[in-house]
Amino acid sequence: MTDRQVGMTPRGEPMPQTIEEWRHLASLEEATMRRMVKEIGDLKSKVASLSQKVASQQIKLAEGLA
């Protein structure tokens, strides 16, 4: 390889078609997918929590109107 690092191709230049470059891209994709899975889990947890709060408030409102 030359003196540049893997994954550091200047803008406008095509990526060299080497095994190292493809491994680097695969590792970036895996890291992104793991981050997205964690973010989705956090968002699902937040939605569940907020849904419980809404349900609780609806019950309180219904009791107050009765």
How would you sum up this structure, described in words?
The protein has 66 residues and is an all-alpha fold. The chain is 71% helix and 0% strand. It is built from one helix and no strands. The longest helix has 47 residues, at 19-65. The radius of gyration is 24 Å and the shape is rod-shaped.
Features:
single chain, rod-shaped, 1 helix, about 70% helix, mainly alpha, about 70 residues
Please describe the topology of this protein.
Elements: H1 19-65
**Which class best fits the helix and strand makeup?**
mainly alpha
Largest sheet: none
Distance between the termini: 77 Å
Overall geometry comes to rod-shaped
Number of helices: 1
Instruction: Round the mean pLDDT to the nearest integer and report it.
Output: 88
Q: Which ranges are low-confidence, i.e. pLDDT below 50, for 5 or more consecutive residues?
A: none
How much of the sequence is in beta strands? Answer: under 5%
Give, in order, the helices and strands.
H
- Name the helicity range: over 70%
Number of strands: 0
Radius of gyration: 24 Å
Q: How would you summarize this macromolecular structure in one to three sentences?
A:
With 66 residues, this protein is mostly helical. 71% of the residues lie in helices and 0% in strands.
